[in-house]
Amino acid sequence: MSIGKSIGLDLGSKTCGVAISDGLGMFAHPIDTLYYDTDMAQLEAPLRKIIEKDRVKMIALGFPKMMNNDVGLRAQISEEFKALLESWFDCEVVLVDERLTTAAATKQLISQDVSRKKRKKVVDQLAAVHILQSHLDRQRFLRGD
Within the chain, which residues score under 50 in pLDDT? Predict the structure, then answer.
């Protein structure tokens, strides 16, 4: 059963890591790190290109809640970005708890002996993979797959 592709986004203060699923919604893999200054609208065109090319149906956006479960500034920015994504694209946008995903991604890259320079280029993509994969796994669990 093909459910369409999904993308995962890890929004940082100047970067946005992007991951994409396979068509069955089983596995996430990294595809890009997008850069912007203070205007998140700069992300619309490159995301539109990905969404249209791959016929994306759902966006899993990292939601960086604080460890005590409070919604801090970064999580509020993610909520604002979710509203922007919904205004730009005809896709479902889901906030996914992303606590510690960047730390897990960094630890994974260090364990694989990836240089600091290379880690900086791919850590956001790998964090996006963690965000998307956790959402895909949760959806499969809820469906009973």
Answer: 1-2
Q: Helices then strands (H, E): number in the chain?
A: 4, 5
- Give pLDDT, residue 3: 58
pLDDT tens digits, 84-102: 999 999 999 999 988 666 6
**In sequence order, which residues have a C-beta less than 8 Å from that of residue 1 and are 6 or more positions away?**
24
Q: Confirm if 132 and 97 have CB atoms less than 8 A apart.
A: no
Which candidate, 79, 85, 99, 5, places its Cα nearest to that of 41?
85
Tell me how crowded residue 73 is: count the other CB atoms within 10 A of its CB: 9
Tell me the β-bridge partners of 95: 61
> Degrees (nearest 5) of the Cα angle 34, 37, 39?
95
35 φ, ψ to 5°? Answer: -115, 145
Give the residue among 61, 80, 63, 79 at the shortest CA–CA distance from 8. 61
Rounded Cα–Cα distance for residues 85 and 18 (Å): 14
Rg (CA), the chain: 15
The predicted model scores a pTM of 0.85
